[in-house]
Amino acid sequence: MPRSPRTRPEGLPEPGAAAGDGTTGSLFVVATPLGNLEDLSSRALRVLREVPVIACEDTRTAGMLLHHLGISREGRRLVPYHDANESRQVAGLMRILMEGSDVALISEAGTPLVSDPGYRIVSSARAAGIRVVPIPGPCAAIAALSVSGLPTDRFCFLGFVPARPGRRRAMIQALTADLGTCICYVPARSVGKVLEDFRDLHPDWNLVIAREMTKMFEEFLAGTAGDLLGRWGESRARGEVTLLAAPPSRRAGA
User: Fold this and answer.
1) CA angle, 70 as apex, 94 and 93 as ends, to 5°?
2) What is the enclosing helix (H) or strand (E) of 77?
3) Which residues span the domain enclosing 167?
4) For residue 158, which phi and psi values (nearest 5 degrees)?
């Protein structure tokens, strides 16, 4: 008999359903679109509609997302949760969860905790026996990898490249074929410097730059660092990009 789309695997709570001993809420880690709202899953939409508290990296961005989704903020609390206040906000969010209310955690875009805040609250919730529920969805690193044309059987995610030139070059110099395809996030204004480092340290590696994914001006640039230096312009120096790198000898399964 086909399962209804609303049917859940046994043991997975719905928003509003108590977890554990029946007195605590659940923490839902919700992936949100990178840019195209059609990428939000129906399950994520339902969770955001039903939870009373949303911990978000940027309350303004979260408010705009809720507005576009037709979700009222009435009776719903948006709690700012970002790098600057993460350690301070954990206690308050834990209190909300322990009192029996569900909380959804979202970032500005994509999957929380993947180079975004969330580690402290997830770690604290799990340590306290609170159920933490993944609501899967968009992730810039995986989306870029899936269309890059680079090997996908083995890869590593490096987060944001270091801001300091010395540390950045040291990270790039340490990359080896054993790591597989390497993925990192780069502020667009720093892409030129990162490409220069790759040109100096790994001149024959295959690179892919993914920018504006799922948006109107989505773009993928591929080539060696030397090739890309001649194609990357100041007009692209806004926001963040996903950069992927693999050595020329790297083949899937090798």
Assistant:
1) 5
2) strand 77-80
3) 140-246
4) -105, 0
Domain end residue (candidates: 135, 160, 186): 135
Phi, psi (deg, nearest 5) at residue 205: -70, 150
pLDDT digits (tens, 9 = 90+) for 18-34: 444 568 999 999 999 99
Question: How many structural domains are present in the chain?
Answer: 2
CB burial string 101-129: b at 16+ within 10 A, e below: bbbbbbbbbbbbbbbbbbebbbebbeeee
DSSP symbol at 107: -
Q: Please name the residue that has the structure tokens 């840019």.
A: 35
Q: Which two tokens stand for residue 166?
A: 């010395």
Output the domain CATH number for residue 100.
3.40.1010.10
Judged by average pLDDT, the poorest of 5-19, 22-36, 171-185 is 5-19
User: Which pair of tokens denotes residue 200?
Assistant: 């100096």
Full-model pTM: 0.88
Q: Quote the CA–CA distance of 43 and 229 in Å, as a whole number.
A: 42
Co-location of 125 and 150 in the same domain: no
pLDDT of res. 42: 97
The answer to whether the beta carbons of residues 25 and 97 sit under 8 Å apart is yes
Instruction: Please list the residues that pair with 206 across neighbouring strands.
Output: 246
Residue 126 φ then ψ, to 5°? -65, -40
With CA atoms as reference, report the closest residue to 110 among 72, 136, 91: 136
Three-point CA angle 80, 65, 105, nearest 5°? 40
CATH assignment of the domain containing 148: 3.30.950.10
Closest listed residue to residue 180, CA positions, set 201, 146, 153: 153
